[in-house]
Amino acid sequence: MGRRQNKGRRVNGILLLDKPIGLTSNDALQRVKWLYRAQKAGHTGSLDPLADGLLPLCFGNATKISAYLLDADKRYSTRVRLGETTVTADAEGEVVERREVGDLDRARIEAVLAEFTGEISQLPPMYSALKHNGERLYNLARKGIEVEREPRTVHIYELRLVAVDLPEIEIEVHCSKGTYIRTLAEDIGKRLGCGGHVRALRRTGVGPYGAEAMVTMEQIEEASQSGADALDAFLLPLESAVGHWPPVQLTADSAFYLRSGQPVLVPKAPTEGWVRIYDELKTFMGVGEILDDGKVAPRRLMQ
Predict the structure, then answer these.
(1) 284 with 276: CB under 8 angstroms?
(2) Is 48 considered catalytic here?
């Protein structure tokens, strides 16, 4: 028997979806993949159904560099309701404790936010997608089972208080991958002495991408009525995912050796870190890393 053909279009690029509230990240991915009639697609880090905002979707060869978006910094805008602690640390969970918020002022709240800036330790919530013995924690939590979790270190680059409208506050967060905003909100509430939970959460940035280039599900559905060209106009080039890394252009000979897996020496290349690699025709080849001897080593190539 011959090899089964993978049905669908060969789509390559990155779509910045504005994921709507109520959909899981995978449901959103499958809907968009179907609208594009795409052979291959994946998303770069789940957003809770309760959350909306930026969900980069990688089509075709872009899936090869999706890991770099998974590892990228994230930005969020969140509304925290103080005075109420819920079982899930968000608005979907049952309220388990209510406390007086009191007359918190902006200075007191900002002082507490400053305590959570920098490197902090977080205990992953039971209502999370982490696995314990092969089962998602949220599935165990729904059965009333709580298991021991290891604290993890995350980095909060910026916490900005946008608005105070007690009992709610609005905060903008710039953080490292793996940060649980629900846990952050709960811990801030504890530190303020009244508890708290996330009432609304919107992701506004992933790595080099901001909210300005997002496309809604409605825009995609409307464009699908006009055909593939209208849909593909929303796609960003593969290298945009690593656009903040310096570029390196190779000669034809260097490109040949690099494609065969060999590190190459490139004049005037950066002395350390990660780079975008282009061939002699200025076509994006993939990503590489500068070795201790100054050579560019291939790490993920498109071909």
Answers:
(1) yes
(2) yes
